[in-house]
Amino acid sequence: MGDIFNQTNITLTCVFIFTLIAIELYRRHLRSKDQPPGPWGLPFVGYLPFLGKNPPRKCTCLAKTYGDIFRIQLGSWPTIVLNSSAAIREALVEQSETFSDRPDFFSCKVVNNMRSLGFGSYTPRWRLHSKIASTVLREFASPNKPTTEKIIMMEAEKLTEYFLENTHTHFDPHEEIFLAIGSVIYQICCGMDKDCRNDKGYINLIKNTKMMQEFAGAGNPIDVMPWLRYVIPSKATRFVEILQTLIVSTDTIMNEHLQTFDEKYLRDVADGLIFAEKKYCRSPKKNQGITKSDIFSTLQDFLGAGFDTSSSTLEWIILYLGHYQHIQELVQQEIDSVIGTRSVSLDDMGKLPFTEATILETQRVSPVVPICCKIFHATFWSKDLDPM
C-alpha cells in the first residue's frame, strides 16, 4: 500500500512540474510573436545560467546571431538587449519616454516604494523630482564652483601624500581611494570639513555603503527571480536591513541640517534639498504629488551613486598606468610641460589632451559597471514587456 502511495505522489509531482513547464513555454511562445528574436532559456531561470562569468561578452556573441536588438529572458523578466550605438540612440533620444521607466524589481520597490530618484517610476512626479535634484546639484556640486574644486584638490593632495609614503613597498590603494572619493561626495552633500574622516556620520556612511556594495555587487537575484524570496527569505531580509541602515544614516544628516537651517545661507546639498522641499511641497500647484520624504531621499541617491563608480574608475586608471608604463611617462611629460610644479586645476581642462584621452580610453576599455552598460542601461525597460 505504501509503495502505491509513494508512486502516486511521484507521478502527481511529475505531472505538476510538467504542466508548469508546458504553461511557461506556451506563455513565452505567445509573448515572443511580436518581440525581437533571441535564444530560448530554461523555465523559471530563463537565460541566466548561460550568461556565464562575462555577460557583456556573451551578449556581444548573441548579437552576431540575433542582431543588434534581441530578447533574452532574465529569470521572470523578458529583457531587450540593445547592442549597437544606433539602437541605443534610438531608444535614448528618439523614444526616450517609452524607455524611461523602471521595472518593479523587489529592490526598486523596497527603496522608498519606487518613489526615489534612482529607482522611481517615470511619472510627472519623478520628472519634477529629477528637475529639483539637477538644480541642487548645479548649485552645490558644479565643477566650476570654488568650494567643489577646493574639496577635490584637498583630497587629491591627501591621496598623493599616502602614495608617496608607501613607495617603499607594495600596497593596495583601494581603501584610501574609496575614502578620498567618499570624502569629496560627503563634503559636497553634507558640509565641508577639514578632515571628515573623523566625522561619525561619514564613518557610518562609509561602513553602510560598503555593506550594500558587498551584498549587491553581483546583483540581487530576487529582482529577476522574485519567487526566490520565499525560498531564501534571509536574502530579502538582509537586503532590507542594510538598506534601512543607509536610510537611518541619511535621515540623521537631514535632521541635523533641519535644526540649523537658514534659507539665507545655504551651505550644501542637504540645505539645498530642504530649501526645495519648502518651495515645492507646500505648493499644490507645483508639487505634482511630490512629498518631503521624496525630496529628502535624494540625499541617499547622491551619496550612493558616486562612491563605487568614481573610486573604481580611478583604480582602473592607476592599474593601466602601472601596466603600460610608457603611457604613464607620456602623461607625466605632458603634465610637467604644461602644468609644471603647481597643482592641476579644472581650468587646465583642454590643455592636457593626451592625459584626458588616457582617462577616456580607460573608461571605454574597462567600464566600471559593464553589465549595466550592456544589459540594464543599454537594455531598456518597456511597459509592453510584462514579467510572468
Would you spell out the secondary-structure blueprint of this structure?
Blueprint: H1 2-32, H2 55-66, E1 69-74, E2 77-82, H3 85-94, H4 106-110, H5 124-140, H6 146-165, H7 174-190, H8 200-216, H9 221-224, H10 228-231, H11 233-259, H12 269-280, H13 292-296, H14 298-323, H15 325-338, H16 353-365, H17 370-376
Antiparallel strand pairs: 1-2
Helix pairs in contact: 5-12, 6-7, 7-14, 8-11, 14-15, 14-16
Transmembrane segments: 6-26
Cofactor: heme
GO cellular component, one term: endoplasmic reticulum membrane
Written description of the protein model:
- The chain is mostly helical and 388 residues long.
- Among the domains are: 1-34; 124-323, Orthogonal Bundle (Cytochrome p450), CATH 1.10.630.10.
- 62% of the residues lie in helices and 3% in strands.
- The protein contains 17 helices and 2 strands.
- It has a two-stranded antiparallel sheet with strand order 1-2.
- β1 (69-74) and β2 (77-82) form a beta hairpin.
- α8 runs antiparallel to α11 (233-259) and α14 packs across α16.
- It starts with a helix and ends in a 12-residue tail after the last helix.
- The relative contact order is 0.11.
